[in-house]
């Protein structure tokens, strides 16, 4: 798990609960902007147009009064690739009465859009070294699943362990560097034995550290037994038990702290790696185990980890990493399948943190103002970084990317929205179980569980990110979040924590505009278009980066339209 730079520690206001279709069209590729497709919608209805196979331009119809539409230009590309899918695009609007099909209006439209506040550009928010480390772990698991090492697992006899006893000594291999190409051998002692977890404490803790007490370790172990483990296994599935002790090991060691010698770009707080569940993998510990940071004095480039800060950080780490452990078991070990794609895997682990925020009593979070603050701050910060610039963030994260925290925010938001609309009134655990207990992965997994094409689901999610709890726009169908009121959350914590009362600000125009940029797989550009009464409407055209070429086919570009008023 990643501790983000500037991760929130302030009390966050508790969120109040929030009280179209995809058209693939013909297989032929249409030319750039033929006769515009007329879009004449009732209020709160939607339409999605495939810019490659249907039309790359549309005409928003006028009426007897002003109309407002939201146009979302987005990439429906769902495939995970190493470099990630991206490409240049341009969105142009003009009054239909003066439109010349295929002609660029960049000159007259250059200043028509409202600028983004703060000079924000279309760049990703980096995740830094910690996020890169966790990306490498997930890719390492992916490679193990593809290599045949899982097949060797069945022929190797597991080393069955007795249930550990308080005071037992043991040793572990812990990654020496973020490349995890070598290991430190760490000796540790059992300090807690519960129904589901065993806590080991490094025998050589740093001198001068603000040490965890036995009461702290008991509290952490009991929280794991009573809440973290039951929440995750209910929401996702079963952890493996390859060593037969029916427990998950939790090793607290400053070897984890040492993975981040410079904390100015974040800190590695803890991790899980699927190689530990294989008998023959080099460095395997042949057991279910998490690794978590320990209290440690300050160093030249890292603040001290105090007893209280460790106890605040560790519970979200454990519930987050347990989802990764369960996912590896359900996808790879039980079904001999592929490991889940990066974006879905990380998104589900952030759903796990959300479950902690919602279902653990505040009395069990004594080192934070509330459990909401302890478990929700990272998700809300990541989501803010995504919503402030949705064009600049891959939803389908590149395998060799930086692991941007905004990507985690996007994945959490999408899966939360999906769970809100594929289950009844609960927190979506039927949906999360379906996503984990399957051999499907990535966009195919999402489409199977969501009951619609990935492109259709993306459109409704993008709509919801702007329309949810929008004043004057009632919650309709899938155009909102059922379990969150994000506008209220961000407003209550602005400007003390978040600069804006709501991070997403679409472009706005009443006719003539031009916006060029770069779309990434799953990302979107939002444009609010006011169509004046009594006219012939407004034409919206999507093209490539020059405005005179087609938008790249690899983006699977769509134009989603919803009428707001």
Discrete helix count: 13
Q: Main sheet?
A: 6 strands, mixed
Based on helices, strands and strand pairing, what is the structural class?
Answer: alpha+beta
Shape, per Cα inertia axes? elongated
Proportion of strand residues:
15-25%
Q: What does this entry look like structurally?
A:
By secondary structure, the protein is an alpha+beta fold. The chain contains 13 helices and 18 strands. The strands form four sheets. The chain has a six-stranded mixed sheet. Strands 2-4-17-6-15 form a five-stranded mixed sheet. It has a five-stranded mixed sheet with strand order 3-18-5-16-14, with helices on one face. Strand 9, helix 4 and strand 10 form a beta-alpha-beta unit. Helix 4 crosses helix 7 and helix 8 packs across helix 9. The longest helix has 27 residues. The radius of gyration is 25 Å and the shape is elongated. The relative contact order is 0.24. The N terminus is likely disordered.
